[in-house]
Design brief:
Length: 192
């Protein structure tokens, strides 16, 4: 069963390394026959959160928000690609996520975190887990941390280390299981 899994990138820095991880994951998901549209806050240029998408009168939300709402409503799961800024979630990621709420409901998420150092961004991932659960898109148990991201992946997202493809495979197997299970449940109805 084909899935739609938006890959939400969390950084807008000029020389951001997360784009490598996002490209890698988009390619891995597409190789499985699923759609993996990249959600890039640098391209979206979303305003700082003043009003959530749902708070705009129907048809009056800025075009990037309308486009994302349409994508998110047809999504089966989300992958969030997060750096670690000051041991926390990057502000661009928080801003991108916080514009929506109901569009995430009853869909699983998965966290790919990365860093230039040896910890792979896991401190931010722990905070992100709580945030995603509160948004209604709880994360799967597994993480995909990528330490030394600049060496692990090329600019185009090609892995330089064999472990990464194997780890990503297990990570995506788990996300696929949750996405398929929750899609069946959404089709038969949700609690509200």
């Amino acid at each position: 069963m084909s899935l739609t899994v938006p890959v939400i990138l969390g950084s807008v820095r000029r020389e951001r390394q997360g784009l490598r991880a996002a490209r890698f994951l988009v390619r891995q998901i597409e190789a499985r026959g699923h759609a993996a549209p990249l959600v890039d806050p640098a391209d979206l240029q979303l305003p700082l959160l003043d009003r959530m998408y749902k708070e705009y009168p129907r048809g009056e939300a800025p075009e990037p928000l309308e486009r994302l709402a349409t994508l998110y409503r047809r999504a089966d799961a989300f992958i969030v690609v997060s750096a670690e800024y000051n041991h926390s979630v990057p502000p661009a990621l928080s801003n991108t996520l916080d514009h929506f709420l109901e569009e995430y409901f009853w869909r699983p998420s998965a966290i790919c975190c990365y860093s230039a150092g040896q910890y792979g961004g896991v401190r931010a991932a722990m905070q992100l887990r709580a945030m995603l659960a509160e948004l209604g898109t709880p994360s799967i148990p597994s993480l995909l941390p990528i330490p030394r991201v600049g060496k692990a992946l090329s600019e185009e997202g090609e892995p330089a280390e064999e472990w990464l493809t194997k780890s990503a495979g297990r990570f995506l197997d788990e996300l696929t299981w949750y996405a398929e299970a929750l899609r069946v449940q959404r089709q038969s109805g949700t609690p509200y």
